[in-house]
Amino acid sequence: MTEKTNKKQRKIVIPGEIIVSAEDHLPGDFTRKEDGNIIANRYGLVDDSGRIIRIIPISGAFEPRRGNTVIGRVEDITFNGWVIHIGGPYTAFLPLAECPRYIDRKAINEFATIGDVLNLKIWGIKKGSIDLTLKSRGLGKLEGGRVIKINSHKVPRVIGKEGSMINLIKNSTNTEITVGQNGFIWIKGDFEGEKRAEEAINLVVKEATSTGLTEKIEEFLGGKVEKITEEVKE
Q1: How far apart are CA 142 and CA 151, in angstroms?
Q2: What is the pLDDT along the chain (234 residues), one digit of tens a residue?
Q3: How many domains does the chain have?
Q4: Global confidence as pTM
Q5: Residues 194, 146: contact at Cβ < 8 Å?
Q6: 28 and 94 in one domain?
Q7: Are 148 and 158 in contact, with CB atoms under 8 Å apart?
């Protein structure tokens, strides 16, 4: 049985493998054009739903890009901002100037203190450091709940096509869920809802390359949710 949202099983490729002829297609993320073919640069799943062929990596470390939405935890406070842990070997910094409202330097820890969890966006990448911002819709402090960590390359599978998978989990467990592209996921609900949502997400990660994944998660959660109206937070 194939997954309803994808209609067909996605092919797994290795670096150097020919994916398709370049005659009617263009290279996208983690692919290249060579000798009239589209070639894989990474190990992962092929997304060939359009003219642009890309690879969805299923292993490896988080590779930050400008515009990524990430979840991070405050590690330290300086005179002009916060040092944020977003995973991996990167130092990330949220400057005071990138907060959505004025904050007095003398009361900086009243806005966010060590241990607080934030939903942020990467707006700049320099050698060895990342600059973050809160100046965008949906960003800010994430209060309560729990934070779990998955491989960042499994994030597209957890979100699903047009948010289908994450909305299924949210609606079935009555939880709020925010997914960071760095693999950190914030879940908030009652204890049982949070626990069930975490278990479902871990199952998606474990079965990421399986066919019929949506049906497996529906069965795990106790049946299909007929109507999904919420949008995935970005």
Answers
A1: 21
A2: 334 444 456 788 888 899 988 888 999 988 999 989 999 988 888 888 788 998 887 666 788 889 999 999 999 999 999 999 998 777 799 999 999 888 888 889 889 999 999 999 999 988 778 999 999 999 999 999 999 999 998 999 999 988 999 999 999 999 999 999 999 999 999 999 999 999 999 999 998 877 788 899 999 998 554 443 333 333
A3: 3
A4: 0.75
A5: yes
A6: no
A7: no
